[in-house]
Amino acid sequence: SIYITGDVHGDFFELQRGVKESDIIVILGDVALNYSGGWKDYKRKKKANALGPEIFCIHGNHEMRP
Known about the structure:
Layout: E1 2-5, E2 24-28, H1 39-50, E3 54-58
Parallel strand pairs: 1-2, 2-3
């Protein structure tokens, strides 16, 4: 299955329900995985990675710019 969402702001609680490793999650902006570049971002990335499915993210205004 493919799930499309946005504005999760680093909160992956809702995305944990019923997803399988074979699923794909597309987050359309405001993911907040690269918000400040610090420890909080690291913890959020670990949570997102632990979900299992492939995650694709589109930058929003809550992402650090390169």
